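Running this now, will post back.
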Amino acid sequence: MSLNDVIQLGASLLAVLFVAWLVKRMGLGSDPRIADADHAIRLADEAEAGFNGIEVARDRAGFAAIVRNAEGRMMLVRAHGNHFAARPVDAATVGRLDKDFLTLTMPEKTFGSVTLQLGKDAGMWASRMRDLNFG
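Update: finished.
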């Protein structure tokens, strides 16, 4: 192996280490989770100023949550890449209850469907959504 090859190998190794450090520093590839009810409320309030969430149904894995405010309005918060996204849950949202799972499909196709494992609370949250014209 020539000196030129050693220098090239060393430079390549340094470049790979630098990119790995940069990716970690930027938080890319992280697995964001909603830690608890307070975290979900904070995310909903960041999405809509003055939302003031009071109750949370958090997916058991922490990837999504439904936050309700005192007025009965609801906001769906979900992991989106290495950040979070939130959308209001309204009559245009399609909901489907399947035992312990509640699947919400937002009218915005790019947001996609979200399935929350809520356990025994899934039915209660689905019934609250009937006021929003869910079937």
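The mean pLDDT is 87. More later if anyone needs it.
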